[in-house]
Specification:
- The complex is a heterodimer of chains A (about 120) and B (about 425).
- Chain A has about 120 residues and is an all-alpha fold.
- Chain A is about 65% helix and about 0% strand.
- Chain A is flat and about 60 Å long.
- Chain B is mainly α and about 425 residues long.
- Chain B contains 14 helices and no strands.
- The chains are: A mainly alpha (about 120), B mainly alpha (about 425).
- At the A-B interface, helix 1, helix 2, helix 3 and helix 4 of A face helix 1, helix 2, helix 4, helix 9 and helix 10 of B.
Chain lengths: ~120, ~425
């Protein structure tokens, strides 16, 4: 067969990322991991979760944009993938608000017997 | 372009339906680009289902953490941050090598592709090795999911039954630790791959040799991970500042410091109460044994004597426990000096810590299963890469597996701080 399997496409569709960019992203990810481990020993009160999740989201953004090639992908693929997070958000928010209103705990009732033992 | 001819089965015009179709192009696609884009949309949709699948577990985590933040703070002390951080690093590095592998396949650097895939596989195995240390250590301590949770703060490292004697004792299951059970399948795989490597060396089969060599390195890396985990586990016991009885404090316990948690409590009664707690739980988890109620009655009678302060405080502790629905048995006169001690003594009951560990094992376990699945597809890619299947017109499979691998990394990026880094 002839060697022009793709000649009618005009140009290659592969988009290889430069190695320095990959290494830079990896360096940033390792740096952010160190930051997130280091900040865990400080007490930021109720902001703890927000800070931790913020750093994790920056890391996730780096992985998605570069390693997963999303910054150079077709917009439709990006929309499809990011839309899943919208639904995750809806799911978690509604379930959490429901749990906050209706349940005091989801603990299994394995030591519910305690009062019986004491009261006798 | 040139490698298209280099492929072994490119001359595929035998069916004659399309003279211009390269071998890698399925006949229902017009161009390689169309084929690639279709596959890419498919893998993105699969990743969407994966995100939604994991969101169920993250939701369970969020609910339980919202309801009982103290349980998470207390139980997270049992997770070794060093091991978690090392695993994060290993997984990030494997993501780098995977992204690099995609690049190699796009620029037709076949040697680099095989090397990068082998590096990714090796990192995956190291990750599992470290995980094996983490899991087996927790199982030995009885830090198990709700229903199986038997951890006793007064005796964190229960002695194992004496191993059987004799030359064949090592084949006796009673001799085996949890770690041995986890390592056994990986050891079998390693031995199998080594036999394959030797066989392909003897028969001088170049293709088999080229596949077996990286696979040998990768399957050996599991034990590198086990070694790494062992070193970090034994070295890094008391890493938390102010943490008095580190969950991972192997060394301390082995030296015979089996003191209960309540050491820093000021009054003796509080110590007694804390010691009682696990027994109470144990009895109640086992069930309503007949001797139990009599014993309580006897104790209550004994407590009427004012000299029996120990039993009195025990009864007081039990009443207090029942009054707060089993959440706390630290008596009012106990002065608690550090926040961590207080949290630990409160949350280490089967019903609370057990739920934390259920969530922990569920999330990290399913993540580990995803790693195993990733290993399987990476081996498939490795074989195909050695076969020179990929070129710059056809690198889809590498790219798709790469996306999956990055998603697994993405999940871990969230799991690590959410589970290990709760102060």
């Amino acid at each position: 067969m002839s060697a022009h399997g793709h000649s009618e496409d005009g140009q290659d569709f592969a988009h290889p990322l430069p190695v320095p960019m990959l290494l830079a992203v990896f360096g940033a990810l390792v740096f952010l991991t160190i930051v997130t481990v280091a900040q865990a020993s400080f007490d930021f009160g109720k902001f703890d979760v927000a800070i931790v999740m913020g750093i994790a989201t920056i890391k996730a953004g780096l992985v998605m944009a570069f390693f997963m090639h999303m910054a150079f992908d077709k917009p439709f693929n990006v929309v499809v993938f990011l839309s899943s997070f919208v639904f995750v958000g809806l799911f978690v928010i509604f379930t959490l608000s429901d749990a906050a209103m209706t349940s005091d705990s989801f603990e299994p009732k394995i030591d519910e017997v305690v009062p019986v033992v004491v009261e006798m | 372009m040139s490698t298209i001819e280099a492929g072994p089965e490119t001359a595929h015009s035998a069916d004659g339906h399309d003279h211009d179709h390269p071998s890698f192009l399925a006949h229902h696609f017009d161009t390689p680009e169309q084929q690639f884009d279709s596959g890419k949309l498919g893998i993105w949709l699969f990743l969407v289902t994966e995100i939604l699948f994991f969101s169920g577990m993250f939701c369970a985590y969020a609910i339980f953490r919202m309801l009982r933040p103290d349980v998470f703070e207390g139980c997270s002390q049992f997770l070794n941050t060093k091991l978690g951080a090392i695993n994060t690093g290993v997984l990030l590095f494997s993501s780098l090598t995977m992204a690099w592998a995609v690049r190699c396949s796009q620029v037709e650097d076949n040697k680099g592709l095989v090397g990068m895939l082998a590096a990714t596989l090796s990192c995956a195995m190291i990750f599992l090795g470290v995980k094996a240390i983490e899991y087996s250590h927790k199982w030995e301590m009885g830090l198990l999911p709700a229903g199986l949770f038997v951890y006793d703060p007064a005796n964190p490292h229960p002695p194992r039954p004496a191993p059987p004697e004799g030359p064949w004792a090592i084949f006796d299951p009673a001799y085996w630790t949890y770690l041995d059970y986890i390592c056994a399948p990986f050891a079998l795989i390693f031995v199998g791959v080594v036999i394959w490597l030797i066989y392909s060396l003897v028969t001088a089969n170049k293709f088999h040799l080229a596949v077996a060599k990286p696979l040998t390195v990768a399957s050996m890396c599991f034990f590198v991970g086990v070694g790494l985990g062992t070193i970090l586990e034994s070295g890094g016991s008391e890493s938390h500042v102010g943490e008095h009885h580190a969950g991972e404090a192997h060394a301390a316990a082995d030296d015979g410091h089996d003191h209960p948690d309540g050491e820093t409590h000021e009054s003796g009664e509080a110590v007694a109460a804390v010691i009682v707690e696990p027994n109470t739980n144990e009895i109640l988890v086992v069930g309503d044994e007949s001797g139990n109620k009599d014993e309580t009655a006897v104790r209550q009678r004994l407590a009427t004597d004012s000299t029996n302060s120990g039993i009195q405080s025990e009864i007081a502790a039990r009443q207090r426990q029942s009054s707060v629905a089993g959440t706390s048995i630290v008596t009012e006169d106990a002065e608690i000096t550090g926040a961590i001690e207080k949290v630990e003594s409160e949350v280490l009951t089967a019903r609370q810590a057990g739920v934390f560990f259920s969530i922990y094992y569920c999330m990290t376990g399913i993540h580990a299963i995803h790693i195993l699945a990733g290993i399987a597809v990476l081996v498939w890619l490795l074989v195909r890469a050695v076969r020179h299947d990929f070129n710059r017109q056809y690198f889809g499979p590498v790219d798709y597996v790469g996306l999956y691998w990055h998603l697994v990394d993405l999940i871990w990026i969230y799991l690590f701080p959410l589970l290990y880094l709760i102060r």
